Amino acid sequence: MSKTTAMRLVELMVYKEDIHAVLSYLGKLGEFQFQDDVVQKTDDKDGDAAANPDADVYRRLQTVRAELDIPDLKDYTEELSLPTEEDRGTAEKLIAAVEDIHAREIDASKNLSGVADAYTEALAFSNLKMPYSELETLSFLTLRIGKIEDSKFDLLKAKLGGRAILVRVGNDSSRIMVACAKNARFFVDTELKNIGFQPLQVPENFKGIPEDAIDRLAAEKEEKEKVLADVQAERHNFVEAHRDSLLHLLQVFSVGSQIYAVENSLESTQFVYRISGWVPAYLTKDITKALDGMTGGRTGIREFLPSEVQSVISGGEKVPVQLKHGKLVSNFERMIFSYGSPLYGTVDPTPFVAIFFTVLFGIMFGDAGQGLVFLILGILMTKRVIRLGGWEKFNLIFICIGISSTIMGLLTGEFFASAAVLRPFERWVTGLFGTPRDQILPMMPSSDPASITRMFMFFGFTVGVGFIINSTGIIINIINQFSLKRKGVALFGKTGVAGAVFFWYVIVFALRVAFLHHAPALYDWIVMGLTLFLTAFGEPFARLVDGERPVLENGLFAAIIAAVVEIIEVISSYLSNTVSFLRVGAFALAHAVLGFIIEMLAEIAPGPAGIVVLIIGNVIVVVLEGMIVAIQVVRLQYYEFFSKFFTESGREFKPFRFTYGTARIK
């Protein structure tokens, strides 16, 4: 049985001039976990610009990207590198240019909005046949008509800005009209007073709004529209010309911000930084060689075994755990770490999880056609032809369960819930070994006594699979406890040697009684009683073997009470762990019955409706029952397999690596 990857603690003493190059190398390597748990997190608060200048530039670039409506990256798309001086200069120019364009676009938009509102309002009342003096009582528009000095026209227009519209009225350039919203009239009146505005008396019988005022508003609106269109066209052209440059800058400053964030968290003197972290043992020579070459031998490097690290010896720190596998088995790693991390130096359970998950899913979901669906989905995800919302990382799991479901479907004779498609194949295979049958492994119960017998045998088979899984978990726990130098627990624990012998002997004893008509003998009771006794008093015996004193830590009476509880726990847990695998047979039977129902409904439905029923039924089974079966398989792994040896969780290896975004150290 393979164990977790051997780890080493590496301590680096790095000169200030080399720190960025060293951190860049470690981040790209992605195999170095800081001893003090330096954590990378995307966050907008990375400290002030002086402490992390690259994070400040990165945030400003993100603002620019948003203003230009350019979709953000999800991950790096180019080789990781640090920002150069040229990149810094380009970034500042690009940011300044976009800020200028954005400011001008906002101003143009505000100006157009004001003119458009005034024009629309004035146009609405242009044909209104009522005295001008009554317009203000009906409109949201405030109008002021009067005279100012011609030289002050531009000054007044600048002061009013976008809050009011100023136009000349008539042939006299000193006559003006000011239009604004009601809520801006006090501001407008104040500015008019300051500029020396002299209101004109509008004749009482004057009706509507002067035609030349409306024409001037229309002309100004057209002018503002053109200004805004020109700015927007400039922005569009800028995006086309600088999109790739901006995305490149975002990536390099993302890397730079993370390096600064890590650097700011390290112990240092004026000239030297200290870096300590865990790396896989098989990489230490390569790392040492690379750092020596990179820094010209200026970096001090020390390597420690976990047994030489004081914090590990004292129990204050756990050695991080890495599980090293090929592509297939590594697909199942997340199932391990979602439950907990194995302890360092213990057995790696991932290969067993891969086998057990694949086999159990196939038994419970036996259909050759539906299995091919999973297989094809897995292949398409591997080839990156389709994406299923992040499920692509489990592509090889889809392939595995697809193969196992297809094999089980060939045994049961099911193909997309139909028992007829594979019938020639089933009869040919069974004919090679005797009388041809419609199915190699019939699952549907019938009135035939042989069918009932086969069903009970199948349930017995699933319990046997459970026995193998439970036993594997027990053996892993025994090996783990001896590896951790916990001999007492390995020998006398519930899932130690004593508990294992009790469990195995009871199973063998039950099989002998059931099938060999064995009469219980004295030695049977002695073996079962002795192993149960050793398990019940496992804690005192473990303390005795490990040299811990006192043996009866809480006294004899407490030990007896604990032993009684332990007996109940041992018997009930082993019984439930074994019987729990009956659900595997139950789900396999339910799957066959559901397929039979779909086939019957398809036969009853008239004409093409039968095909529709068959398609919909299979889709429901693949999606819903596939999810239910997967959940049940995970449950069996967690509660029946993992519970045997996951008595304590370790620490997952989470190395420092660059992730797109900025970093904050906690």
Structure report:
This protein is an alpha+beta fold. 58% of the residues lie in helices and 8% in strands. A hairpin with a 6-residue loop joins β4 and β5.
Summarize the structure.
By secondary structure, the chain is of the alpha+beta class. The chain contains 22 helices and eleven strands.
Distance between the termini: 37 Å
Percentage of helical residues?
Answer: 55-70%
The backbone outline, from C-alpha atoms, is extended
- What count of helical segments does DSSP give? 22
What Rg do the Cα atoms give? 39 Å
Record field, number of beta strands: 11
Strand content: 5-15%
Instruction: Give the structural class.
Output: alpha+beta
Largest sheet, strands/sense/barrel: 5 strands, antiparallel
What number is the mean pLDDT? 87
State the low-pLDDT regions, or none.
39-46, 204-208
What are the SSEs and their pairings?
Layout: E1 7-15, H1 19-29, E2 33-34, H2 53-67, H3 85-124, E3 141-147, H4 153-160, E4 164-168, E5 175-181, H5 185-195, E6 198-199, H6 211-265, E7 267-268, E8 272-280, H7 284-295, E9 300-304, H8 310-313, E10 320-321, H9 327-330, H10 333-337, H11 350-364, H12 368-382, H13 395-412, H14 423-431, H15 449-483, H16 487-492, H17 497-515, H18 522-536, H19 538-545, H20 556-579, H21 582-604, H22 609-645, E11 651-652
Parallel strand pairs: 10-11
Antiparallel strand pairs: 1-8, 1-9, 2-8, 3-5, 3-6, 4-5, 7-8
Helix pairs in contact: 1-6, 2-3, 2-6, 3-6, 11-13, 11-22, 12-13, 15-21, 15-22, 17-18, 18-20, 21-22
